[in-house]
Amino acid sequence: MGLKVLDRREDGFHNIESIFLPTQLCDILEVHILDNAPEGELKFECSGIEVNGSIHDNTIVRAHQILSEKFRLPALEAKLHKVIPTGAGLGGGSSDGTFMLKAINDICSLELSEESLEKYAEELGSDCPFFVKNRTSFVTGRGEVLTPIYDEKGALRLDEMMILIIHPGVHINTSEAFAWLKEDKRRNKLQAHHVPKRTNKHNDILSSNPVKNWGDLFMNDFENSVTTRFEPVKKARQLIKEAGADYIQMTGSGSSVYGIFGGPLNSLKDTKVTLNAQKVAEKAKKEGFFVYFGALA
User: Fold this and answer.
1) Max alpha carbon distance in the chain (Å)?
2) 168 pLDDT above the threshold of 80
3) How confident is the model at residue 116 (pLDDT cuts 50, 70, 90)?
4) Strand 42-48 relative to strand 76-82: parallel, antiparallel, unpaired?
5) Helix (H) or strand (E) holding 188
6) Mean pLDDT, rounded, of the chain
7) Threshold 0.85, pTM exceeds
8) What's residue 87's pLDDT?
9) Whole-angstrom distance, CA of residue 67 vs CA of residue 78
10) What is the β-pairing status of strands 257-261 and 28-33?
11) CATH number at residue 93
């Protein structure tokens, strides 16, 4: 939630500031020890939404490789059922690889700490460490520096909120998205909107502001550049606005768009909002878009 792109790092990545929120949209991963198979072997099967690219590039296979180089592992079988679209900016591949690390740690009794798992996850990708603890966090660095956000005041009730996610089927190349951002900033001679600088009160950053005000606080630097270039992304945003979401934003460099509904869900007003969101979700499906509508946490 919110994405500010900062300076370019010596390793080629950019420093960022953002807030990551877990959702209940997830893939399904099963991992088992295989009997009567060579030590260190991985049998991997994938079903559901098609995953493009080489199997050797799959984050689950890479996660196994990372740990097999450090530890003596038994033969394992991993079965992945893909629900989250690939290349959608929803962290599907990142979460798959990280949960594979966690599964191997548990099944093989490696006794790795969360901090150690985060280090291994960092080898998989910049946003992978988030999925080790998988809780709302303020994110800096290239995505690997995590500061958990706690609901200290009791005003932030994520479990009472709903989220509508629409993926319009557009694949956004991250390198191109960075190039467009640089081009647009140069043309307009404006600084892109960004997440405000955090202080030591970051734990209050969400709970102290109603959801309807989040749009003024958390903005995505990539959103304008992408939506002006891809009509389906703009269409997805219009649909979520039509649904009456309190907060609307594109995910990362795209191309999914999501809306958060503030709740509490048991009120008459929000029951009507939920019904309206469900109607918009059906409308989006008729457009051929991937849609998820459900509880945020």
Assistant:
1) 64
2) yes
3) very high
4) parallel
5) helix 174-188
6) 87
7) yes
8) 86
9) 14
10) unpaired
11) 3.30.230.10
pLDDT by residue (tens digit) across 18-54? 999 999 999 999 999 999 999 999 999 999 998 888 8
Work out the burial of residue 115: count CB atoms within 10 Å of its CB; fewer than 13 is exposed, 13-18 middle, 19 or more buried. exposed
Q: N- to C-terminal Cα distance for the chain?
A: 14
* Region of 11 on the Ramachandran plot (φ > 0 left; ψ -120 to 50 alpha; else beta): alpha
**For the chain, what percent of residues have pLDDT higher than 90?**
58
Determine the pLDDT at residue 215: 86
249 in any annotated domain: yes
Q: Exposed e or buried b for every residue in 38-54, given b needs 16+ CB within 10 A?
A: eeeebebebeeeebeee
Report CA Rg, the chain. 20
Question: HSE (CB half, 13 Å, CA atoms) of 82?
Answer: 23
Instruction: Give the residue from 101, 134, 167 where a domain finishes.
Output: 134
202-206: Cβ within 8 A, 24+ apart: 202/138, 202/147, 202/149, 203/149, 203/150, 203/152, 204/152, 204/153, 205/19, 205/138, 205/149, 206/19, 206/136, 206/149, 206/156
Same domain, yes or no: 207 and 277: yes
- Across the range 238-251, mean pLDDT stands at 95
Counting Cα atoms < 13 Å in the Cβ hemisphere of 39 gives: 5
Domain that holds residue 111: 23-134
Strands 28-33 and 76-82, bridge-based pairing = antiparallel
Question: Do 77 and 117 reside in the same domain of the chain?
Answer: yes
CATH of the domain at 162: 3.30.70.890
CA 185 to chain centre: 25
